Amino acid sequence: MDYLNKTKQYEEAYLQDLKNIIAIPSLRNDAQATEHAPFGNGCREALDYMLDLARKDGFVVKDYNGYAGVIEYGEGTESVGILGHLDIVPVGTGWTKDPYGCEIEDGYVFGRGILDDKGPTLCGYYAMKMLKDANIKLNKKVMLIMGCDEESGMECMDYYKKHGEIPSIGFTPDADFPLIYGEKGILDYHIRGEYNGVIKSMRAGERANIVIGKASLSLHSLSDKEEELYQDYMKSHNLTGNVVREENEVVLEMDGVFAHSAYSAIGVNAALHLLNFVGTTFDDIAAKHLYTLLHDWKGSGSNVYIEGAYMGYLTMNAGIVNIENGTLDVLVDIRYPNDTTADDIVAKVRRVIVEKQMGFTIENISDSKPLFVDPKSKLISILEDSYRTYSNDHFTPIKTIGGGTYARKFDNFVAFGPEFPMKEETPFFVGGPHEKDEGMKIKDLMNATAIYASAIEKLGE
């Protein structure tokens, strides 16, 4: 079947469903958590939308207490899995489009979750729908598994693995084409310690996996000369910000550049720049130490620099910085290649802290080990063939990434699309995952749907 031509019959319905699900603010909200909505109302609503849609289309559906849901097609002792997620990261600032409006401009559709991962999950669903509507018989059961907590630790998949059926083989539509056969390990830890410097308070950042694009801190006072130094600092680093003088404090505001921590090289961490300014201007020892440890996205300040053979550089990001009541707490996110280990990285950071007498501790360590699938395996061959057939791209190589996807939660899974390597220039900005004005070309969403349908058919034979 020519799946790309077939998608034309489904495009209008797809866009309407996309609009409906993008409109749901499915951010994790622990304050709203209940027995069947463990991540809050928004995630529960998004999951209900997808399950209700599938029921109406005649699929078998299963609800795993709001942690995850499954849409099934066909039968078999073996199964093909598609792993998507319905939760999103915070919107952030700077949008020119309605982040929940699914606005369309010149063939592009915009909204939080268009790329990560509501749009691609819906592509997987419509790929299954095309197979079902065409009555294509498979020897394996197809399972679209939709989680609700991918962005905040994948607790949903931990629950699902304990209670649900594990697919034999499959992919997650949550990265790039041609396909991702390896993902860096994800190491998070807190740097904590006492604080006796000039900062009155500082609360910056929303998630470990987002480069802090906007930050502020408060000081008890700031002289005119020190304000001049702040303005000079911003000019010399091509940054913008403000000084806000209030009755009992002075607030320094800084604008950086938001980015996914896996690509921290393209971001600008506003919180670290504030720490650098305070450290150098006021000889604030703790601020100096934090900046020394964390300023280099390659980790040289913590002595963890490494370039992997398959996966490239280790990356480091200070995702949340809190200073309050004489204590400091920084949440650090590291993406590391499979040439090293989390234990080795933590040991090196601790050694730097001790040798330089920084007085910090490393606590609450979490580690998700790297994913690596043989690039010559049958799974990789089938997925790559489906991509090449429908994209006519016979040049771009398969690769590894720094992002973490659901693929690492299951054996014999890889990340597969939806972003295409060759992008058109546009007169307007189109953001990527976790960025403002997140968007994708409608034509590419339909092409991804065709690729997924082809891949599912071949994997299900």
List the defining traits of the structure above.
461 residues, alpha+beta, Alpha-Beta Plaits, globular
Structure characterization notes:
This protein is α+β, with helices and mostly antiparallel strands. Helices cover 30% and strands 27% of the residues. The model has no long low-confidence stretch (mean pLDDT 96). It has helices at 3-6, 11-22, 41-56, 118-133, 155-163, 224-236, 270-282, 285-294, 342-355, 378-391, 442-459, and strands at residues 60-64, 68-73, 79-85, 104-105, 108-110, 141-147, 169-172, 175-176, 180-183, 185-194, 199-204, 210-211, 214-219, 240-245, 250-255, 259-260, 307-308, 312-313, 315-324, 327-336, 361-368, 371-372, 399-401, 413-415, 418-419, 439-441. The chain has 2 domains: 3-184 and 371-459, Zn peptidases (Aminopeptidase, 3-Layer(aba) Sandwich); 185-368, Alpha-Beta Plaits, CATH 3.30.70. The longest helix is centred in the C-terminal third of the chain and has 18 residues, at 442-459. The chain is built from 11 helices and 26 strands. A hairpin with a 3-residue loop joins strand 17 and strand 18. The strands form 7 sheets. The protein has an 8-stranded antiparallel beta sheet, covered by helices on one side. Strands 1-2-6-3-7-24 form a 6-stranded mixed beta sheet, with helices on both faces. The protein has a 3-stranded antiparallel beta sheet with strand order 4-5-26. Helix 4 (118-133) packs across helix 11.
